[in-house]
Amino acid sequence: MSADVVVIGSGLAGSAAARSIAKDGHRVTVLERFEKAHVRGSSHGAERVFRLTYDDPAYIQLGLEALSGWALLSKESGAPLLHQVGMLDYGDAGVLATLEQLCASNGVELQRISERDASQRWGGIKFDSDVLLQPVGGWIAADLALKAFADSAKSNGAVFHYDSPVLSIAKVRSGGWSVETQGGTLSADAVVVTTAGWTHELIGDVIDERFEVPPITVTTEVVAYFERRDASLWPSFCHHLEPEIYGLPSPDGLVKIAEHGSGAETHPDERSFDPNSATIQRLEDYARDWLPGITPTALRSATCLYAATPTDDIFIERSGSLILGVGLGGHGFKFGPAVGDRIASLVAEALAEASQ
């Protein structure tokens, strides 16, 4: 079997990349080691925050690229994927000042609202500072979005193989790649690796020593869901404490809250699916102290994996015709359409280079 491009991993980065690459007219095969829509990585779940408030202009620009991409994917799929209920940032004054300055210099609208006015407008949240409102922010219907990426990729000719773990990848003399799976060997002109915490085990020695791939740390994070006291509309929010607490509405009418990046380090094959009880207790305590609009006893909880680089930066780079898209776990879902396009751009470079 052969393909122009083999994409390894069908999570957010892999499915978004497959869509963009297939739209460019290339033959794409996606290999996923687990079942369709599995829960072992970082891409499952019903909702993710969408925001442009970053302390790095590169991510503000990436978010702006993604914003138009979400609109296109929603139109293509026929389902609303980005719900712009607003995004609130509050807490540490220094953080707010930085976010405000960078958003202003990058053309992103923010509204500064006094603590008093914010409390009147969003009575379900207790504030300790002025609030930065980002009108285009909100939440993404994550499971629907992941399906939309895959469906679009398939409609453009991409082929997905689930329960198909990759055993090895190797460079061949012709300049292409040999990808060995349990079901056979595929040849490809380019390979895209989007395997998060499994990446270093997979790429092994095939990477050029001059190509520095950052280490990826995997942590098990806990999220909890709480019942609203009334039917008022909730925004997404980030309370800039230590650790940061974020929250957002869920499609079933609950409010999801979590600590950002406080989980214990693990290996993706050894992670626990049982939420840490101490973390749930901290989230319930936070809800009791800061979120009067919800009942402070978690109705349910879940775990997910962060797979982050040391700087929390997303790593999208290529070494010849091997392209990596990793480090998204923790904050990358919001950038999905832009991540897919950037990976596809590197694939186009690699294929053009190989044809010379």
Automatic annotation (TrEMBL):
Pfam (any one): DAO
Cofactor(s) annotated in UniProt: FAD
Keyword terms of this UniProt record: FAD, Flavoprotein, Oxidoreductase
Residue span, FAD dependent oxidoreductase domain: 4-346
One function term, GO molecular function aspect: sarcosine oxidase activity
Gene3D superfamilies named in the record: D-Amino Acid Oxidase, subunit A, domain 2, FAD/NAD(P)-binding domain
Membrane-spanning segments: none
InterPro entries in the cross-refs: FAD-dep_OxRdtase (IPR006076), FAD/NAD-bd_sf (IPR036188), MTOX (IPR045170)
PANTHER family in UniProt: PEROXISOMAL SARCOSINE OXIDASE (PTHR10961:SF46)
Protein name per UniProt: Unannotated protein
Organism: freshwater metagenome
